[in-house]
Amino acid sequence: MTGALWTYLAVFAICAVGTAMAFFVPAKRAAESIAWAGGGAALVAFAAGAQGLAAPESLVSLWSLPTFGPMALGTTHLAALFTCIAALVYFPVSVYTAGYLRRYEDRYSLPAFAAWYYVTLAAVMAVFIARDVVSFFIAWEIVAIATAALVAYEWREKANARAAYVMLAMSEAGTLAALLAMLLVLSREHSLLFVQGVAFGPSGGVRWAVFLLSFFGFGVKAGLMPLNSWLPRAHPVAPGNVSALLSSVVLNLGVYGILLVNLELAPVSSVSFGTVALIVGAISALAGILYATINDDLKTMLAYSSVENIGIAVAAMGAGLVFIALHETALAAIGLAAGLYHLLNHSAYKGLLFLGASTVQAQTGQRSIDRLGGLMRLLPVTSFCFFIGALSISGIPPFNGFASEWLALESLLRSAELAPPWLRVVFSLSGAAIALTAALAITCFVKAFGMTFLGHSRLHPKQPITEAPRSMLFGMYVLVAACALLGLLPTFVLAAIDGALAPVLGGSWVQHTLVPAFFGARLPADQLPPAFLTTFHALGAQLGYGIVPGRGLVVMLRGGSANPVVFAMSSTYLAATLLLFLGAAYLGRRVLARSRRRTAPSWAGGLSSIPPTMTYTGTGFSNPVRVIFNAVFLPARTDERKTIHEHFRDAIRRAREDVFVADRVVARPAIAAATWLAHLLARMHHGRLPAYVAYALAALLIVLAISLSR
Amino acid sequence: MSWFLRGIRSGIRTEPLSPDAPVLAGVTPGFPRETRFESVADARDNETRCPTGAIRADGEVARVKRDRCIHCMRCATPDGSAKMEWTVDHEWAHGGEGSGSLPAAFRRSLHVRVIDAGDCGACLNEIGHLDDPFYNAHRFGIFVTPTPRQADVLLIVGPVTQQMQAALKVAYEAMPGPRRVVAVGACAVDGGLFGPSVMCGSGAADVVPVDVFVPGCPPPPLAILHALRAVCGQEPLER
């Protein structure tokens, strides 16, 4: 057994100890115990992931159980990267939990929360080290059930129980499809252990079935369109720390499943699969951000935004899968790296935003953006953290969303190197959709931050609103630091992602193609042309080598001799430049514009003061998007007429309901069809005994006929 | 399509601001001009005939204080022969204590916030005509804006009633600099028929510093346009 696996086992042990601790410490300390044990477990898990990334991949056969067959544990670099991502979120969320759970102290059982919390953490880790179908799906199911239990933690609320039920039901359906896909793959090798590189024909029907079942089966968990009706229901009702975990950890599991089947077990052989992933990803991104922009609920908005971000990541990975099928490994590496990088970033900033939104809810008791406002003055630290999260998710440099979104878009722009024209069209359209998504994301988060934290407070609090306890703030600080570092040091993050992709791509392609050795004089012959390097060194590309030794701080794809640089980006240098500019602007303002400044009360249209109800609301801010994309939203409008007095015209109360497009197109018709079928079948249940006996006989006869005919 | 054809058919209706413009019938009522009469009695006669004290006899000369005149025409239609002479120009604006026209950057872009500080409706009506095709203030880059936060010029009409004094001050405070204030109409210039009285002071200058005065009751759109063009430096402004 290798070191990494022992570390994983240590995580399980800490989880077990933590569960016991939660039951035995006094109830007041139960929440604190999660911070210590859960945080510790997360740190150990991060170490396990780092170890797994550094060490060669390993496999340990455990035992062979009579019904389950052989079971094996092992570490792969891909799973190790996902472990790191999960641990990165679990640590701050655990600390956050200490302060956050206090609001439930008298109403719900804290040890129960702790138990499900540790079970989720352990099961997520188990998913990453499971190397056979049985243990993988046992762990997978435990995650599904435990997260459903966490979502339904406030079980006395009807909406929570309902959301958890929808989530569990959809997750089970997806799991069945995914299980079928995995069995289809592994049955070719007659093995229940994971076998890498199972070969299929060029694009047979079975391979299509495997792809579609795995993509949409795991896609349910990942929140991809159109099977994500559970997502905007479960995220807002779950406790705040659980929402963060759902978005930042559980959705990643779905993507891990897709990659496990289609990249590791049976690498895709046809461009069609990657194209499907690309299109679904782009549609998810656009639909997600559209609904996020118009949504008024802070946490539902973030849930839709998760659909968007997973969509971007999956679209980039889809591009990677297309390039794999075309044997363009270098470009495939860029696409896959962009997707994984975006997943990592999404986990960091979405965790941060969910923690921020939950803090707002915990301190004000309100989640509706239209009813919040002016929180900057009341919750300054939370506002700062949410602001950094909003900057990151909007793709504003130098924060992390920029680096990965930029890389994802660049990978889609490589369509020029594709042969089939229809594929170029698909790539261009998807790229356009994702560019539009990025623009809408800014609108969405300007609204979310501006209307929640700036302006006048629309709240009428019963008791004064105070800043959150230190444990909650600490959790957010950690993620703020993660957002900044992941954005400032893209070349170092890409090195880690390269480690994860190296086994499946056969070589460290990401490092080779994306991060040229910019620093120092130790340049291999195939690196950049000397004249080119001289120019860049003269521009100051060596800057920072003394502080952060490495290959360089520039992410760059080199082309042929005609254009030596296809694209290049360095958010590190960008940040330095930005700081210089900001400093200069600040100084300029201090020096030049000081004398002309005049302070005056804000204009209230002639009134003595502005009532908060008169200020701009989130609904008002996002209304242009609502109007422009009316064809997508297709809102159900209801006009309610009411006669107030016969001499006056009827009063009309106009209501509008935006149903999520996935609900409208898939979930509701499916439910209607199932209900119709059930009604049809119910006709058989009329209560006459002889008829039932006849059914049984008929069934028996059919079975006999089938078995005799073989 | 019909609006397009109709527009073509009707041609350009905008007043070109030619030297002939002021004599067009109904465009401006005009002002009495300083007139030398044959006898002192005629001048004194006109002074007593004026209800607002705009005419003051100085020997045989009847001097005119335009700020007070409300174009009642009593001095233009006397029974006898002692008529005041009348002008029909439209360049009525004159500068106040303020700092003259705005810097050159505002020459082709001026945003105006109109404040009704107790207006009878006449001046507002004339201001409303500024944007119509005939006067078309847009061609000079003059635009009406709904908020003082975006305005360069505050256009005040009415004698500034007590209820409006605070609001006017706030609106003036809310304006970014450089800014100018134009008082339009006899009321806003010096209180007109209403002030000073228990309900209002003697014009806008009581409350905010006024840069340009436009007398008249009401001043016609061309006169207001002249004042605005003077504020943004398109035309010279008399002191």
Describe this entry's structure for a reader:
Chain A is mostly helical and 710 residues long. Chain A has five domains: 1-198 and 206-267, no CATH class; 271-508, no CATH class; 509-573, no CATH class; 616-657, no CATH class; 661-709. Chain A is built from 25 helices and six strands. Chain A has helices at 3-24, 30-54, 77-100, 110-129, 133-151, 158-187, 205-222, 231-237, 240-265, 271-294, 298-325, 329-364, 375-378, 380-393, 400-413, 421-453, 470-488, 490-505, 509-514, 530-539, 571-592, 618-628, 630-633, 661-682, 689-709; strands at residues 58-65, 69-75, 555-558, 565-569, 636-642, 651-657. In chain A, the strands form three sheets. Chain A has a two-stranded antiparallel ribbon with strand order 1-2. Chain A has a two-stranded antiparallel ribbon with strand order 3-4. A two-stranded antiparallel ribbon of chain A has the order 5-6. In chain A, strand 5 and strand 6 (651-657) form a beta hairpin. Chain A is globular and about 100 Å long. Chain B has 239 residues and is an alpha/beta fold. Chain B has two domains: 31-87, Alpha-Beta Plaits (2-Layer Sandwich); 94-231, Rossmann fold (3-Layer(aba) Sandwich). Chain B has helices at residues 2-10, 40-49, 122-128, 162-174, 185-190, 221-231; strands spanning 31-33, 35-36, 55-58, 61-64, 85-87, 94-95, 110-116, 142-144, 153-157, 180-184, 212-214. Chain B has a six-stranded mixed beta sheet, sandwiched between helices. A three-stranded antiparallel beta sheet of chain B has the order 2-4-3. A two-stranded antiparallel ribbon of chain B has the order 1-5. In chain B, helix 5 (185-190) links the parallel strand 10 and strand 11. The model of chain B has no long low-confidence stretch (mean pLDDT 86). At the A-B interface, loops of A face helix 4 of B.
